[in-house]
């Protein structure tokens, strides 16, 4: 029993995300300058710094593409998509947000959702433009966590208003059909303390369960 791995970083870590295959994970330390985004391989106990210092602001979050060697890195206002093999930026997504607080990639790899402290839930269709496909503002306070269910057509967002909004989010294999996003349920149960409410949420990998 005990920890499988222990990492020591020079600055505070704000984000940790696993690759779906389970061997790689990425960490983000916004104040760590050029080493803000690191990729770690558990089986080899190795860490890599794939990118230099970005000119577009401090990295806040990062997550992997589920199938392709892409890494999504969010600053406060934008999301950059990097090709990990070629080590180049392939796309820059313009969120329209003031401060991005969370992001997640759809299991298909073709869609991305971003949550922000200015109450926005932004959906990107990665096969279309670099601007949002849809922007939703259902919460009364800042969004802290957004995510897709890995198996079912569900998406959810958690906020400082103490609630979690659950959406039916159907993505079609027919590229001519737009994604269907329908509000399903508002879950309440968390209280707001000193301006902070529901700080994180996650779906169960196989069941229709949500943890917050």
Structural notes for this entry:
- With 212 residues, the chain is mainly β.
- Helices cover 0% and strands 43% of the residues.
- It is built from no helices and 18 strands.
- It has strands spanning 15-18, 24-28, 37-41, 46-48, 61-64, 70-74, 78-83, 88-94, 100-105, 111-116, 121-125, 134-136, 143-148, 154-159, 163-170, 180-188, 202-203, 210-211.
- The chain starts with 14 loop residues before the first strand and ends with a strand.
Apparent shape = globular
Quaternary state reads: single chain
User: Any idea what the radius of gyration is?
Assistant: 17 Å
* Terminal residue distance: 26 Å
**Number of helix segments?**
0
Helix content: under 10%
Query: Given the helix and strand composition, which structural class is it?
Result: mainly beta
Q: Could you name the ranges where pLDDT drops below 50 across 5 or more consecutive residues?
A: none
Kindly report the spatial arrangement of strands forming the biggest sheet.
1-2-3-4
Number of strands: 18
Mean pLDDT: 91
| Beta-strand percent range | 35-45%
Topology pattern, helix = H, strand = E:
EEEEEEEEEEEEEEEEEE
Main beta-sheet annotation: 4 strands, antiparallel
